[in-house]
Amino acid sequence: MPEMHFHIRWPDGRREACYSPSLVVKDFLAVGESYALDDFVDKTRTALNIASERVREKYGFACSSAMAQLARIETAAKRQAPGGLVTVETFET
């Protein structure tokens, strides 16, 4: 199963490399696009849950790394000012 990293810039300017065990993130996010904070969290939640389920289907257990990444995204989002935009800078496979 191909894994990937997606590099983002939070509304406060901080950059972060995020992990996914699947390329499914590319179905929800696009490089160079900016997303409203809540929309970004919703999209990554959906993508990382799908990715984790793909791991479960293949290996018999969910992907704890995907769920940990989702928790980090949700926590970081709560520290951002409302109305901010998250920019997807690059995908790395």
Compact overview of the structure:
This protein has 93 residues and is α+β, with helices and mostly antiparallel strands.
Describe this structure in words.
The protein has 93 residues and is an alpha+beta fold. The chain has helices at 37-59, 64-78, and strands at 4-9, 15-20, 34-36, 85-92. It has a four-stranded antiparallel sheet with strand order 2-1-4-3. It is globular, with a radius of gyration of 13 Å. The mean pLDDT is 97.
Q: Separation of termini?
A: 11 Å
**How many H/I helical runs?**
2
Element string (H = helix, E = strand) = EEEHHE
Largest sheet: 4 strands, antiparallel
In the predicted model, the low-confidence regions spanning at least 5 consecutive residues are none
Query: Could you give the count of β-strands?
Result: 4
Q: What is the residue-averaged pLDDT?
A: 97
Arrangement of strands in the largest sheet: 2-1-4-3
Helix/strand-derived category reads: alpha+beta
Report the radius of gyration as a whole number of Å.
13 Å
**Strand content range:** 15-25%
Give the overall shape, derived from the CA principal axes.
globular
Helix content: 40-55%
